[in-house]
Amino acid sequence: MTPRLELSGRRVLLTGATGGLGRVLAERLAGGGAELVLIGRRSEPLEQLAVRTGARAIVGDLTDGEFVASLREQVRGVWGGAPDVLVNNAGAFELAPFAETEPSAFERVLAVNLRAPFELTRAWLPDMLARGSGQIVNVGSVAGRKAFPGNAAYSASKYGLRGLHEVLVEELRGTGLKATWIEPSAMDTPLWDRFDTEGRMDLPARAEMLEPGSVADAVCFAIAQPDAVSVEEIVIRANPAARRC
Ligand SMILES: NC(=O)c1ccc[n+]([C@@H]2O[C@H](COP(=O)([O-])OP(=O)(O)OC[C@H]3O[C@@H](n4cnc5c(N)ncnc54)[C@H](OP(=O)(O)O)[C@@H]3O)[C@@H](O)[C@H]2O)c1
Does the predicted TM-score (pTM) go above 0.90? Predict the structure, then answer.
């Protein structure tokens, strides 16, 4: 039996809450008693999720620098200070040969996957350091460790995010703060809806991908650890020969 998740009163700020992983994660965190502020781009699904999880919802586009800059004050308005945990989960995905990757697409992917986590982490670090506690969870990808054709923008962003995370881990030693890198392989989420995963041999079949719930469990595991335990990295890969249960 899975032990009950105990996160009573833990304040978690989650980006990408309207996505495949974000939605499951929000529900599990709320089930464990966490207080949530959820960020998403699409207002209707975000508001519905906020009602289900008793969360506050903030709608906005993470490529919009003014919106990202406003988040510190908006979240302060809810909690009066820094979250206990920031989960940088929002992600933009592009699939195109290098030479056909538009600079605008490259910039958009970097803005969501790398710049926004940088800005949000930077916004909360001073308060967390002054308090001597706090956790930054960065959702990376296998594409931040291994190169795949067609992933120029996405890989650049996820390799970059892993670099940012590793610097953070070193800087946070001895401060009481912690940083966690979550690195899934392909997950069966709406991220793949735009692509013909069944018809293209170069893409993983959806039935062989990880279920987002398995990755949400890993995030919850890292967040539920006592202050004295820091989970720095969780690498999760599908085991396609095994049946899902
Ligand atoms: N799915 C995979 O195969 C896979 C594998 C490894 C790692 N990951 C990583 O896991 C994380 C979650 O991905 P997912 O699979 O859940 O993807 P998803 O279902 O496509 O969800 C992506 C989330 O990011 C948000 N987002 C995208 N662009 C945004 C923007 N410009 N401003 C604000 N929010 C934006 C989306 O908001 P809206 O829905 O409101 O637009 C959505 O909530 C991402 O960091 C992704 O890179 C995914």
Answer: yes
